[in-house]
């Protein structure tokens, strides 16, 4: 199963500037020697891998990217200025496909890596190159060539940092909508009716994480009942799980504390059956639908559930529908993810040091050295 975020974009490199036709002014000679300069080259379009991005949703708003045209040549043998390149930042992990040929032309795997996806046109020659001995045919010049244009499909395998667990109706999709700045369109999903709800939670401009609910996780999921087993594979890659429970379950003959605790345990059993390691993942309990329980009952109910479950990890009480208290959950989740990333990086560096190889230097990767450049035509 793949969770793929997709976008299609159009890239057009700049045309080369035209060569210039011009003549020296000389006394008594109406047309002096040809001195038209060359046109500048057009700018190219590049994709640049950026580890701070995690989805392709922004390409829904901006789909066309052009690089600048080269300037035309000028008289007095002056060259036109080259057009500026255009850089498009894409998340690390983006696969680039040429729509016309359906060929993969690049795979952006390292931060700072650059891929030229449309080469700028060459500047044309000015007439200074066409001097003849008689000076009779100096009106020749060549126009700039056209910059390449391409339609590209970008595909990103989404890795959700935060997974949302819970019984049907606990409010998972409502929670995702409440906290997301954007919801990526997910393609290449084998089920037509059951899509995971994905959201990008943007804490600050360049600090965000992807949250995904895990639909269809019902009892028996670990044995393959329903579609749960497929989603459980995803949970293995989540760095943090939010376990949502309905704090106001509707069952007439069962005490709500017992019902909530039972539902939490039912999900835990599914996780354990699939992979006992899943129970060791950080999992925070989120009591949802707090608006449905009278305030004086709420605290006691939450406390009783925590006690019944012997819960020691963090817990939150929220109302997804009114967005009450949902933001603190996200802020703490972001802090948790930042800490996990730092720890992972340190572990990689230590492992590399132990192996005698230099560890990855995150800062240095952003400097897009020539060695990081690749050409889609190469
Ligand atoms: N009163 C109240 N209702 C809520 C809250 N959050 C969700 N709901 C309602 O609960 C119902 C289920 O919410 P969903 O977000 O669809 O639940 P889900 O967990 O995604 O459900 P599945 O898609 O079946 O797995 C909807 O009618 C929501 O409007 C809340 O904070 N308060």
TrEMBL record:
<dbReference type="InterPro" id="IPR014100">
    <property type="entry name" value="GTP-bd_Obg/CgtA"/>
</dbReference>
<dbReference type="GO" id="GO:0005525">
    <property type="term" value="F:GTP binding"/>
</dbReference>
<dbReference type="InterPro" id="IPR027417">
    <property type="entry name" value="P-loop_NTPase"/>
</dbReference>
<dbReference type="InterPro" id="IPR045086">
    <property type="entry name" value="OBG_GTPase"/>
</dbReference>
<keyword id="KW-0479">Metal-binding</keyword>
<feature type="binding site">
    <location>
        <begin position="319"/>
        <end position="321"/>
    </location>
    <ligand>
        <name>GTP</name>
    </ligand>
</feature>
<feature type="binding site">
    <location>
        <begin position="213"/>
        <end position="216"/>
    </location>
    <ligand>
        <name>GTP</name>
    </ligand>
</feature>
<keyword id="KW-0547">Nucleotide-binding</keyword>
<feature type="domain" description="OBG-type G">
    <location>
        <begin position="160"/>
        <end position="338"/>
    </location>
</feature>
<protein>
    <recommendedName>
        <fullName>GTPase Obg</fullName>
        <ecNumber>3.6.5.-</ecNumber>
    </recommendedName>
</protein>
<feature type="binding site">
    <location>
        <position position="193"/>
    </location>
    <ligand>
        <name>Mg(2+)</name>
    </ligand>
</feature>
<dbReference type="GO" id="GO:0042254">
    <property type="term" value="P:ribosome biogenesis"/>
</dbReference>
<dbReference type="InterPro" id="IPR006169">
    <property type="entry name" value="GTP1_OBG_dom"/>
</dbReference>
<dbReference type="InterPro" id="IPR006073">
    <property type="entry name" value="GTP-bd"/>
</dbReference>
<dbReference type="Pfam" id="PF01018">
    <property type="entry name" value="GTP1_OBG"/>
</dbReference>
<comment type="subunit">
    <text>Monomer.</text>
</comment>
<dbReference type="GO" id="GO:0000287">
    <property type="term" value="F:magnesium ion binding"/>
</dbReference>
<feature type="binding site">
    <location>
        <begin position="191"/>
        <end position="195"/>
    </location>
    <ligand>
        <name>GTP</name>
    </ligand>
</feature>
<dbReference type="InterPro" id="IPR006074">
    <property type="entry name" value="GTP1-OBG_CS"/>
</dbReference>
<feature type="binding site">
    <location>
        <position position="173"/>
    </location>
    <ligand>
        <name>Mg(2+)</name>
    </ligand>
</feature>
<keyword id="KW-0460">Magnesium</keyword>
<comment type="similarity">
    <text>Belongs to the TRAFAC class OBG-HflX-like GTPase superfamily. OBG GTPase family.</text>
</comment>
<feature type="compositionally biased region" description="Low complexity">
    <location>
        <begin position="351"/>
        <end position="371"/>
    </location>
</feature>
<dbReference type="InterPro" id="IPR031167">
    <property type="entry name" value="G_OBG"/>
</dbReference>
<comment type="function">
    <text>An essential GTPase which binds GTP, GDP and possibly (p)ppGpp with moderate affinity, with high nucleotide exchange rates and a fairly low GTP hydrolysis rate. Plays a role in control of the cell cycle, stress response, ribosome biogenesis and in those bacteria that undergo differentiation, in morphogenesis control.</text>
</comment>
<dbReference type="InterPro" id="IPR036726">
    <property type="entry name" value="GTP1_OBG_dom_sf"/>
</dbReference>
<dbReference type="GO" id="GO:0005737">
    <property type="term" value="C:cytoplasm"/>
</dbReference>
<keyword id="KW-0342">GTP-binding</keyword>
<dbReference type="GO" id="GO:0003924">
    <property type="term" value="F:GTPase activity"/>
</dbReference>
<dbReference type="Pfam" id="PF01926">
    <property type="entry name" value="MMR_HSR1"/>
</dbReference>
<feature type="binding site">
    <location>
        <begin position="166"/>
        <end position="173"/>
    </location>
    <ligand>
        <name>GTP</name>
    </ligand>
</feature>
<keyword id="KW-0963">Cytoplasm</keyword>
<feature type="region of interest" description="Disordered">
    <location>
        <begin position="349"/>
        <end position="378"/>
    </location>
</feature>
<feature type="region of interest" description="Disordered">
    <location>
        <begin position="118"/>
        <end position="147"/>
    </location>
</feature>
<keyword id="KW-0378">Hydrolase</keyword>
<dbReference type="GO" id="GO:0043022">
    <property type="term" value="F:ribosome binding"/>
</dbReference>
<feature type="domain" description="Obg">
    <location>
        <begin position="1"/>
        <end position="159"/>
    </location>
</feature>
<feature type="binding site">
    <location>
        <begin position="288"/>
        <end position="291"/>
    </location>
    <ligand>
        <name>GTP</name>
    </ligand>
</feature>
């Amino acid at each position: 199963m793949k969770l793929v975020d997709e976008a299609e974009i159009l890239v057009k490199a700049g045309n080369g500037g035209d060569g210039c036709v011009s003549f020296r002014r000389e006394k008594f000679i109406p047309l002096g020697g040809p001195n038209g300069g060359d046109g500048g080259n057009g700018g190219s379009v590049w994709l640049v891998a950026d580890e701070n991005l995690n989805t392709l949703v922004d390409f829904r708003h901006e789909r066309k990217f052009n690089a600048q045209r080269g300037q035309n040549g000028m008289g007095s043998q002056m060259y036109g200025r080259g057009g500026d390149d255009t850089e498009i930042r894409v998340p690390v992990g983006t696969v680039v496909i040429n729509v016309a040929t359906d060929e993969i032309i690049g795979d952006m795997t390292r931060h700072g890596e650059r891929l030229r996806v449309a080469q700028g046109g060459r500047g044309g020659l000015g007439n200074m190159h066409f001097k003849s001995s008689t000076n009779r045919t100096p009106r020749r010049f060549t126009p700039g060539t056209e910059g390449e244009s391409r339609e590209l499909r970008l595909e990103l395998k989404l890795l959700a940092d935060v997974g949302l667990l819970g019984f049907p109706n606990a409010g998972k999709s409502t929670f995702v909508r409440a906290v997301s700045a954007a919801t990526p369109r997910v393609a290449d999903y084998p089920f037509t009716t059951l899509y995971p709800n994905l959201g990008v939670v943007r804490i600050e401009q360049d600090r965000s994480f992807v949250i995904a609910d895990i639909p269809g996780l019902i009892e028996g999921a670990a044995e393959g009942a329903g579609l749960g087993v497929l989603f459980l594979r995803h949970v293995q890659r989540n760095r943090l799980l939010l376990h949502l429970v309905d704090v106001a379950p509707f069952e007439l003959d069962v005490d709500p504390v017992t019902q909530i605790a039972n539902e939490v345990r039912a999900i835990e059993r599914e996780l354990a059956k699939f992979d006992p390691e899943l129970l060791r993942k950080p999992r925070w309990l989120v009591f949802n639908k707090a608006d449905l329980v009278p305030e004086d009952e709420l605290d006691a109910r939450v406390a009783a559930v925590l006690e019944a479950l012997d819960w020691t990890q963090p817990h939150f009480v929220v109302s997804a529908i009114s967005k009450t208290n949902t933001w603190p959950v996200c802020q703490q989740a972001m802090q948790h993810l930042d800490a996990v990333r730092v720890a992972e990086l340190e572990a990689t560096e230590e492992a590399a040091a132990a192996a005698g190889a230099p560890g990855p230097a995150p800062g240095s990767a952003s400097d897009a050295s020539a060695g990081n450049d690749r050409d889609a035509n190469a």
